[in-house]
Request: fold
Amino acid sequence: MSNSNKVLRIRRAVTVGLILLGVFLIIAAIVAELVGLGPTPGFGVLQTLVFLLGITALTIGIYLYLRARRPADAPRSLQAEIGIRLSATGLVLCYVSGFADLIRIGTHIAPEFDRPFIGPLQLGSLGIGLLMLVGGMALHYTSRGPRQTSSLEFILNGKKE
Reply:
């Protein structure tokens, strides 16, 4: 077995492992809330952490999969770069809105509330962050594939296509 096949197998295993771990963590956080295992009213801090770690693992796994679908020598397009950055921004927004009470910018901070939990405003911004994340993935997925140059390169060098 060659070294490249071994690396490819390891990369596939890591990608599948991250995707499965992400799905498992997201389901575990949601099921804990539905079954009533959470110690706080609403979505608590531990459930939020597990949910966000699941989203992070799922995001990394999906981007590893998308990267593996492209030829290794193909340059990334501007659209793909914007997609990655938009997804990262959405992930940061998810973390900030999920832990807003802990960093004291949320609506459920002490001393009025014993324990922080996700309220409707935080849930809304968490949803916006997830939409940004998915939108970035869609931008990356639909960007150019194996083409070596941009279709807009004629602007730079004056040539017509």
About this structure: The chain has a mean pLDDT of 82. The helical segments are 3-35, 45-69, 78-98, 120-142, 154-157. Residues 3-150 form one domain. The two ends are 44 Å apart (CA to CA).
